[in-house]
Design a protein that fits this description.
By secondary structure, the chain is an alpha+beta fold. The chain is built from 11 helices and 24 strands. The longest helix has 17 residues, at 39-55. The chain is globular, with a radius of gyration of 23 Å. Belongs to the peptidase S41A family.
């Protein structure tokens, strides 16, 4: 059996794949202590600490031991809870704000063990240096990347502003390795982009949910309607969107749904984790600067919509897709999503450290839990006309060790893994295929979404091997109660 592939990430975005972060920065010191502490186990912890200090082969700093103990304790809970040291905490805050210090490249792990450039960010240091989509990074400074995890590689590419890093790159059709010496800069990334793909039809992509996402979305929608006031269809692209700030997801869904619609609900141990979030400014605005969504063209509430998703669509992406699906506001097109249905809250410990703790499961307006299950598209359309490529081999939430179970029904069996020879066939085929450029004329799933909005036949998943005739999505439909 071959191994599942890792999802792509953005260098410098704090490796936030699959997280819906509730931006509640509350201090742990303010919370009352539980009087029923396990004293015997705490004594054992103290005993082990003392044994290491007295008997270990070489001295170990107290701070290191205690930090590692905290890290291990939190990490044992689920794949998304974590202790955030000074550097990790700063990276998470930077990522949620849509800015970071780095090179400005979207990366993924290639099947060869190298780092694959998915795309350089426009006008970033990497873009100006000549880095191209499809390049493979073989060395970071003098360190070979083979054997490094994606997270370790990301950390090596981050650093202080104006510091330099050397990338050794393998490029197809180049006879020799290329070396790029690039200075790190603060990158301001727009999480939303879009364009008129053909008269009457627009494509709107959200790469990640950040603090500025709702503002960026509103500005882009206004621009699209300025270009074509008579839009007949809109494709919202959430493929490979790993999630991000919860308020961003609420705002994006609210842009297309009637005001005051329930967007998502959460349930956990604490009273403040058991609530419903609605399409109102108080639920999606992070700053008191007026409701930017109120200025959108009225037509955006009714324009026929399709939403593109894949295995890389996680957490906040699934909140949006699930809400639009439950209200029958849009047709969900693509392949099964990641299945990340939990919310992480940031609990600050000191001025520079925090705990990212899973505090609740989230549910769609119809009460569906997405945890370890994901969103099932209304129309199963694979990435390419001849199959789903590397998406079929990616990790999903249900594949992660210690993942949170789905509490609304019995957890579905893990996705059946392909036989080794079939995986090898897919990998070999993907090596010959150029990286997919979302939104391009070669974007097969986008073309099928446009066909659906026009009422034309749609080529569904390869295993189904059929065309379906689909009417455009109705603008609104009452939700089940």
């Amino acid at each position: 059996m071959g191994k599942k592939l890792k999802n792509t990430g953005l260098v410098g975005l704090g490796v936030v794949a699959g997280i819906a972060v509730s931006l509640q920065f509350s201090a742990m010191a303010q919370r009352p202590a539980d009087p029923a502490l396990p004293l015997e186990e705490l004594r054992q912890l103290a005993d082990v600490f003392g044994l290491i200090k007295s008997d270990y082969v070489e001295p170990v700093e107290d701070k290191k031991l205690l930090t590692e103990a905290i890290t291990g304790m939190v990490a044992s809970l689920d794949p998304h809870s974590a202790y955030l040291d000074k550097k990790a905490y700063a990276e998470l805050r930077e990522g949620s704000q849509g800015k970071f210090v780095g090179l400005g490249i979207e990366i993924g792990q290639s099947e060869d063990g190298y780092i694959k450039i998915v795309a350089p960010i426009e006008d970033s240091p990497a873009h100006r240096a000549g880095i191209k989509a499809g390049d493979l990074i073989t060395r970071l400074d003098s360190t070979p990347v083979k054997g490094l995890s994606l997270d370790e590689s990301v950390k090596k590419m981050r650093g202080e502003p104006h510091s330099k890093v050397s990338l050794t790159v393998l490029r197809k059709d180049e006879p020799e390795l290329l070396v790029f010496n690039i200075s790190r800069e603060e990158i301001h990334q727009k999480s939303v982009k879009g364009k008129i793909v053909e008269p009457g039809y627009a494509w709107l992509r959200i790469a990640q949910f950040q603090e500025p996402t709702v503002d960026d979305l509103a500005a882009k929608i206004a621009d699209l309607y300025k270009q074509d006031p008579q839009l007949k269809g809109l494709v919202l692209d959430l493929r490979n969107d790993p999630g991000g700030v919860l308020q961003g997801a609420i705002g994006v869904a609210a842009a297309f749904l009637p005001r005051d619609s329930a967007i998502v609900s959460t349930n956990g141990q604490l009273p403040d984790s058991r609530q419903t979030f609605y399409g109102r400014p108080e639920y999606y605005l992070l700053r008191n600067e007026g409701d930017i969504l109120a200025k959108l063209p009225a037509a955006v509430k009714n324009v026929p919509m399709a939403v593109l998703v894949n295995t890389g669509s996680a957490s906040a992406s699934e909140i949006v897709a699930g809400a639009l699906q439950d209200y029958k506001r849009a047709t969900i097109i693509g392949t099964q999503t990641f299945g990340k249905g939990s919310v992480q809250t940031i609990r600050q410990l000191t001025a520079d450290t925090a705990v990212k703790l899973t505090t609740a499961r989230y549910y769609t307006p119809n009460g569906r839990s997405i945890q370890a299950k994901g969103i099932t598209p209304d129309l199963q359309v694979e990435e390419n006309a001849d199959g789903d490529g590397l998406n079929a081999l990616r990790l999903r939430e249900a594949d992660l060790s210690k993942h949170l179970s789905n509490d609304r029904d019995q957890e579905a069996a893990k996705t059946k893994r392909d036989e080794a020879e079939e995986q090898l066939r897919v990998l070999m085929a993907e090596r010959k295929r150029k990286p997919l450029d979302f939104g391009s004329t070669d974007d097969f799933q986008l073309q099928q979404a446009l066909n659906h909005l026009k009422g034309l036949p749609v080529q569904t998943a390869k295993q189904e091997s059929k065309l379906v005739q689909a009417d455009p999505v109705p603008a609104k439909s009452p939700i089940k109660k």
